Amino acid sequence: MKPVRHTTAVVPAYTSSLGRIRMLAGDPALDFANTLHWRDETLVDFLPDYWSLAEWSLPAALLTQDETELVTAHASLFVDVSAAAHAMTIALRGAWRDVLSQAHGGDQAPGREGAADAKLRQCLAAALVGPSLVMRASDGVPAENLVLLPLRRIALAIASLLLIPAGRRIGRCEGDPCGGYFLDTSRSKPRRWCSMDTCGNRAKVRGFRHRMRADAVVDPKN
User: Fold this and answer.
1) Digit-coded pLDDT (tens) for 15-28
2) Which of 63, 92, 161, 182 is a plausible cystine mate for 57, CB 3.0–4.6 Å?
3) pLDDT tops 60 at residue 3
C-alpha cells in the first residue's frame, strides 16, 4: 500500500489598500474578470489605477518580479501612456465580463446578439497589435511601450483561454452576490462555489438557518 501524501496548496493572492483577493479561478483570464469583485455587499474594483494593475499581474503569474518593477518604473515616466493602458485594460475587462455573463444567462437586449463578442474581439485586437508580447528594454523597444505589457499579457491570457483548447468549462459562483468566475475542472459534479471556505460556507449557513425557521413549531396560543 502506497503512503498517503498530504499537500497544502498555497493559493496566490493580491493584497492592496482595498483588501486581499485570492486567485481562485484556476486561470489568470478569469482571475482578471474577478478583479471587479463583491465584498461586503459592495462592488469593489481592485484595479483602480495602472500601478494596481501592474502589481496584480505578479501574483496572477502574468508578469515576473523584474517585469513588474520595470513597468511600474516606466509608468512613472510616461503617465499619459500608463493612463491610456489602464483605460484600455478596464474596457477589456468590461467586454470580457459581458461575454462571460451572457454565457451564464445574463440579460441581452433584443437585437444585440453578438455585440458582446464583437466588443471583446475589438478590445483584444487593440491590445495585441504592435510590439512583441515579450518586451524588454534591451530589445530596443520604445520605453513607453513597456507600459503596455500588463494589458497585452492579459489579452493573451483571455485569447488563450477561449481558443487553446476550445470548449473548456467555465463556471460561476452561486454565492449571492459573489458571481465570481472559475475554470470548472471537477469530474463528478459541477463546481458551485469560488471557494467552499467563503461562499460555500455562507450558503450552508443560510440553508441551515432557513431549515431551522421552516421546522420551527409555532405555539397557536401565542
Assistant:
1) 998 889 999 999 99
2) 63
3) no
Name the pLDDT band for 131 (thresholds 50, 70, 90).
Answer: low
Q: Name beta bridge partners: 120.
A: none
Contacts of 19 (CB under 8 A, 6+ apart): 39, 44, 46
Q: Which residue has the higher pLDDT, 202 or 146?
A: 146
Q: Of all residues in the chain, what percent carry a pLDDT higher than 90?
A: 50
- The phi, psi pair for 95, rounded to 5°, reads -65, -40
Task: In whole angstroms, give the CA distance from residue 34 to residue 21.
Answer: 9
